[in-house]
Amino acid sequence: MPRRFCQDCGRLFDRATSPGHQRCAPCQQHADQQHEARRGTTTQRGYGAAHQAERARQLEAFTPGQPCARCGRPIASADDADLGHTDDRSGYRGLEHAACNRGASRKSRQPGRQPVRDSAACDLRPDGGEADDDQGDDDWIGIA
Fold first, then answer.
1. Where are the beta strands (DSSP E) in 42-139?
2. Is the pTM of this model over 0.70?
3. Cα–Cα distance list, 11 to 16, 29, 61 (Å)
4. How many angstroms separate the CA atoms of 48 and 33, rounded?
5. Which tens digit of pLDDT belongs to each residue from 87-115?
6. What are phi and psi of 111, to 5 degrees?
7. E strand residue ranges, 2-139
8. Domain coordinates of the chain in residue numbers?
């Protein structure tokens, strides 16, 4: 079995039995708890009762093929729809592909990168399939 030293406590552990593969199980559990504490509650992150009620309201009116509020491509099903915040998180854009919504957040946290257009955050190909992570960055520019 592959073994390695825990990056936190330095003990030798079996990588196959540890979920994170960087830490032993007790240290990984502690790291996960600290991460969740830093993230805050769903309300603190902007997904509280008001967000959930608005999402439910918009999903009630959802029809398959409705355009994504971020990229404009059709959303196939309600299961693939997230309620997207505006970039300043002061309001809502509308229903977005889950990949568009979550990709916009991920890409906005990358230092020195700025989207050229809103659809740059969409990780879906025109045929509806998922794009590879190493592709689709042509719409992004580095900021020096």
1. 81-85, 92-97, 113-115
2. no
3. 15, 15, 54
4. 21
5. 888 888 999 998 988 876 655 555 554 44
6. -65, 140
7. 3-5, 12-14, 81-85, 92-97, 113-115
8. 3-39, 49-142
